[in-house]
Structure prediction request, 259 residues.
Amino acid sequence: MESQNVLIEIDDGIGVVTVNRPQLRNALSSETVEALESALREVEANADVKVVVITGAGKAFVAGADIKEMSTMDTAAARAFSQRGHRLITLMEQMKKPIIAAVNGYALGGGLELALACDFIYAAEEARLGLPEVTLGVIPGFGGTQNLPRLIGPSRSKELIFTGRQLTAQQAREWGLVNEVVPADELMTRVMELAQNIARNGTLAISTAKEAVVSGLNVTKENGLRLEGALFGLLFDSEDQKEGMHAFLEKRPAAFKGK
Ligand code: CO8
Prediction:
């Protein structure tokens, strides 16, 4: 679906996906969630893209789901909207390409949940992160009650969810929610450098590492180790493994092909 609500820009192997409703602080309407899904499917399918970055236009990352649209929903519509969101975050987990959230401003409610569905978060100093759903009489419905405790533990998650308060970017880093805090005017440069760093590594190795970490979080450690061993072995059937190891032994940079 063509929508101006989400833009895609491809820059030297990095696919930058921008939520683009700045006048509404990039609030996620159903149409915007659909547009995000189709944008992510597009960058996943594009062989020129190695790493994906999600960010927001203007002063917000994403200020949550569209409250105006939600205000008239009944139970069935709200459940369907939440499930629509769950399909999107499941897609993000299953994507082979790494996804970095470049949180340029407010990441609230569904906005923080979108960032949590990325592989990790870099944030601008001015960014504010929180789950204010209880202030609206609802709960996070876009994976927040599940993804946040897995990342920062249940106690801090419950404090954030029960109070609805906003963390500064620095507090969010101290809580383990954000990897790095960067001055706003340097955020995209730093994130693009990071993305380029990842893109230079074995493409198959990166997607396999993502699969091992994401899948491993949902199974016992024993099964996670079994999965890791199987995936490790599989990579030895790839050209990238041969190229990476031969390049090391021949003291030259590796030229990975992603196969
Ligand atoms: N939904 C709809 N419109 C919004 C939203 C939103 N989430 N956030 C901001 N807007 C609109 C405002 O209504 C305003 O519109 P208008 O100009 O027509 O009056 C415009 O954006 C600008 O907003 P502000 O004037 O408030 O801008 P500020 O820069 O002063 O403040 C804030 C920015 C702090 C982000 C403020 O707008 C705010 O608090 N927004 C609401 C944050 C919030 O409560 N988010 C949680 C929503 S609930 C949720 O996300 C649940 C997700 C569950 C399922 C999702 C499945 C996909």
About this structure: The two ends are 30 Å apart (CA to CA). The chain has two domains: 6-199, 203-249. The mean pLDDT is 97. Residues 24-25, 27-28, 33, 60, 63-68, 81-82, 84-85, 106, 108-110, 132-133, 136, 141-142 surround octanoyl-coenzyme A (CB under 6 Å).
